[in-house]
Design a protein that fits this description.
single chain; about 190 residues; mainly alpha
Amino acid sequence: MWSGVFDRFPALRVVFVEIRSYWIPPTLDALTRKNEEAGGILKLTPWEYWERNCAVTPTFMRLTDLDVRENVGIDKVMFGSDHPHAEGTWPNTEDFLRLVLDDIPEGDARAILGSNAIDFYHLDRAYLEGLGAKYGPKPAEILGQAHTVDPGVAEHLNNRNGLNKKVSYEDQRTEDAVVEDVVKALAQR
């Protein structure tokens, strides 16, 4: 955004993949502060560029990714299973979803698990919803706390991919990175 790419190509879409999503709100806030300090050099705010051009597909969702879904934009978050990597959710994806999505609204789950990707990539909704109805789990099979996941599987998933791992966000490191990146990007304008 700082080099003007989103201004020159407003229809460009960027999806951050194999990455967490907890960093997005504080980073966009830092970029917003930097833009204000620079006198509003950007045509849109960093949050507006994010809304218009970006989305995120965490490698696999951790609870911390879901914690920021409303700040990031529920329509900007997509599910990733990271298959076939060892830290991915397969072959326990349904149990993984039961653990991660157990207390979020069905509308949010539907958005994250498919609708957002359909909208973002302009895919054939009718076709994909047909496949989902035929092969995918039903909401009642993964949502709500009525489902139990074998404690051994839950521990395995936590050990394998840090399902419950708490993360911290280092504001100063982000501020420093933002300043460095902005200087480099402005040189490209």
